[in-house]
Amino acid sequence: MLNPYFIIGAMIAVGGAYGYGHHVGWGDRDAEMQVEIAKKNDEAREKERELAQQLNEQSTKLSEANNVITQKQSSLDSAIRAGRLRLPSTSCVQATPNAPTPTGDSSKERSEPNRPVYETTDSERATLQAIAEIVAQGDKNTAQLNACIDSYNKVMEVMNANR
Predict the structure, then answer these.
(1) How many angstroms from the chain centroid is the CA of residue 52?
(2) Which residues contact 117 (CB under 8 A, 6 or more apart)?
(3) Could you read off the pLDDT of 18-66 as tens digits, one per residue?
(4) Looking at the whole model, is its pTM more than 0.70?
């Protein structure tokens, strides 16, 4: 007959072997998971570097576009201040058929070729500057929106390419 101590000893030995194998198995799994996590972290860092580079390129393009817009606005402002830019007249005033002929010396205007025939008023200059500011801000907003869309598309390309 089997000794009860032998049975208990065999059960302890089997349980110990199972516990040791179970413990070593978890350790191996943890080591494999750490290697996999390190690999995924390296891939994520590479994606981050690539995306940061692309975003920096977009930021540079946006800055260049804003510089061009600012230069354009400066030249437009100087043209407005110099009186070279004016609002178009809304319509031609029609004289009545029996209107008197205007009197005045038009030869004075012709004798000064550098003097503009039409002078812009302060309110017209203010209006032109306001319009120029609105156009410049619209151009800046459009450039910023386009840069945002381009950045989004590039990020989506990178994210979808690595799936």
Answers:
(1) 13
(2) 109
(3) 877 777 777 778 888 999 999 999 998 998 998 899 889 999 999 999 9
(4) no
